[in-house]
Specification:
2 copies of one chain form a homodimer. With 383 residues, the first copy, chain A, is an alpha+beta fold. The first copy, chain A, has 2 domains: 255 residues, L-amino peptidase D-ALA esterase/amidase (4-Layer Sandwich), CATH 3.60.70; 117 residues, ArgJ beta chain, C-terminal domain (Ubiquitin-like (UB roll)). Chain A is 32% helix and 23% strand. Chain A has 10 helices and 15 strands. In chain A, strands 13-12-11-14-10-15 form a 6-stranded mixed sheet. In chain A, strands 3-9-8-7-6 form a 5-stranded mixed sheet, sandwiched between helices. In chain A, α1 crosses α2, α2 packs parallel to α3 and α7 crosses α9. Chain A is globular. About 2% of the residues of chain A have low confidence. The interface between A and B is large, with 63 and 63 residues. Chains A, B: It catalyses: L-glutamate + acetyl-CoA = N-acetyl-L-glutamate + CoA + H(+); N(2)-acetyl-L-ornithine + L-glutamate = N-acetyl-L-glutamate + L-ornithine.
Chain lengths: 383, 383
């Protein structure tokens, strides 16, 4: 079920042969309405893939009747011919569901710098349209996987309406530029402004704070489609919480399945002067290869955390910082605190808290450790 | 010879027992004048080690009569007691050479968050002072090594004067927060303004552009000491070139000995609108783990280069970028160019050129690949 749990949606997942593995590689999600309100956030990378360039045009209308997603090829750095391929897919889907190309969002993921096989793509879309059903959510979630070891899905129940979601990839984790693709569906009746506000706030606190290797994909897309089929106009705050909860659930699933990771690390920066300060410090730590290697080595190396914090412009006094690993305050006031021997980093979940003592704002960033398996997967991926 | 190649300098390197390995760990360099002009650049990390905090005070006088360097402990995040240890070292060296504490620069490198063994340090400095000689340069260069596999030294001959240098560590490469320490000596007669200008320009184009893992050390120090013993006042441009040449030589030695690296990568960004743009793009590529893993895997993955460039604010059109690996233009105008099969990445030296087609500025950044050995060394370092 999942993305087809809310009323008004049909989906399918099929094998078009774009993937060498022969696994499913085309997913189609159709919004049968009555409403076709949609909102989306895209990668902020300036080198955007063709499907992102196209889908940005679609989203200018603030509506979408369908989204077609393919794995097995990112259609990125493929020039005008690649854009034409994307546009043809949108046109084909539009024709099959009685809509225009401009109603169809397109997402692609996989290797970059190569053209998609157009005949296979066309045949696959035809097949996917024929298999659309209100039970197709799980099949769609399977078809968008690349190096994922399992599909990611989530559903939440609101007051008379539902929110469902599927995701693939490793998001901001961006292994091999594989893409974070997320589709969220709801049968709540919401207007375009509400959908946009709710989606932006939800992604800001979830997917945007997943920072596994600091590499930003060229294809990232998070799409919210609202069918209105429940007839229920939700309270915005409650609806926002539900969408954020689905995003958080999917983000944690992405984190747990990140390529090569041994540890899921939660970095909480507390008592910052501003949320932006807390975020800047959290991101700088999440991007420190030295810190990430240390966690892989089960070493509560707080010095590498302070050194990362020291590269930021956040407000704090270096000699006042406290740092805890899994609840043990190994650094107090910029000096050794409790014994590092007390810290046990054998579990997959690792908690780091950094106290800036500069205010009352905070932020949480999620990341992974840097492992041999990460290096292996990302050095061998395209060879 | 090296740092003692210029007239007016004595140096020594001894074993104080700060290192568990029992290898040399204290180096002393004394400037016998007649001039004691000096200039220095320090890490811009806000979380600075105690020796950096002290040495910044010394350099406010724009003179220095000696520098004492220890490996086997960074004296970083060690609070007021650690600062006191640094100050006591300066005072002790001053007493031994007939100068004040304020004349003595102190540098430390090694593990952080631990106090130095003061009795060992004191005895070691006493020993080092007794071994000072005009042939002690090589011994000093040995004593500052941590994970370096060999010492780094360079000498250049000017018109009637010399410039010598020694370096340790992996600089901006910053393995395990081990530090880049560089001491450059000259017997040229230069004033403080000239020394400062020349050193800043030289480091800007050499050590500052060495960016192996994006992690900034808490202890980095580059010190230039000018004895004036040759009696020759050099032409500033020629002197500047010589100092830059010594810095470049040492920087390349650091690059070649970076922990765990399989490849030395030169990233040249050309035809940028400004030098700052070229630098921003170069650094973003040098900090992409995905790019660095690809080079380790001998994969000319230009997509990861474009994706890194796309995260910057530099002026360029994404669809116009060209990228070459070892002279093969694998990407032309943001699309596949020459066959990637033509690129051979088996040699240690790798050249990447990115053409932004936006102006006539350029910049070069040096970095290393991301390897299993890097992960191993940095996950096992302090355990």
């Amino acid at each position: 079920m999942t993305i087809t749990a809310p009323l008004g949606f049909r989906a399918s997942g099929v094998t078009a042969g774009l993937k060498a593995s022969g696994k499913p590689d085309i997913a189609l999600v159709v919004n049968d309405g009555p409403s076709d309100v949609a909102a989306a956030v895209f990668t902020t990378n300036r080198c955007k893939a063709n499907p992102v360039l196209w889908s940005e045009q679609v989203m200018a209308t603030r509506t979408a009747k369908a989204v077609v997603l393919n794995s097995g090829g990112a259609n990125c750095y493929t020039g005008p011919r690649g854009f034409q391929t994307t546009h043809a897919s949108a046109e084909q889907v539009g024709g099959l569901i009685g809509a225009g190309a401009i109603d169809v969002v397109v997402c692609s993921t996989g290797l970059i710098g190569e053209q998609l096989d157009e005949p296979k793509l066309t045949a696959g879309i035809e097949l996917a349209a024929g298999k659309l059903s209100a039970e197709g959510g799980a099949a769609a979630a399977e078809a968008i996987m690349t190096t994922d070891t399992h599909s990611k899905q989530a559903v939440r129940e609101g007051e008379g309406y539902r929110v469902g979601g599927m995701a693939k990839g490793a998001g901001m984790l961006a292994p091999a530029l594989a893409t974070m693709l997320v589709v969220i569906t709801t049968d709540a009746l919401v207007d375009a402004d509400t959908a946009d506000r709710v989606l932006r706030e939800a992604t800001r606190l979830t997917f945007d704070r997943l920072d596994s290797d600091g590499c930003m994909s060229t294809n990232d897309t998070v799409l919210l489609m609202c069918s209105g089929a429940s007839g229920v106009t939700p309270d915005e705050a409650a609806f926002g919480e539900l969408v954020a909860d689905v995003c958080h659930d999917l983000a944690q699933q992405l984190l747990g399945d990140a390529e090569g990771a041994d540890h899921d690390i939660t970095i909480e920066v507390v008592n910052a002067a501003t949320e932006a300060d807390a975020l800047e410090v959290g991101r700088s730590i999440a991007r420190s290869n030295l810190f990430k290697c240390a966690v892989f080595g089960k070493d509560p190396n707080w010095g590498r955390i302070l050194a990362s914090a020291g590269t930021t412009n956040a407000t704090f006094e270096p000699a006042e910082l406290d740092v805890a690993f899994n609840g043990v305050w190994v650094c107090r006031g910029g000096e050794p605190g409790e014994s590092r021997e007390k810290v046990d980093l054998t579990e997959r979940a690792v908690s780091v808290v950094v106290d800036l003592k500069a205010g009352d704002s905070s932020a949480t960033i999620w990341t992974n450790d840097l492992t041999h398996a990460y290096v292996h997967e990302n050095s061998a991926y395209s060879t």
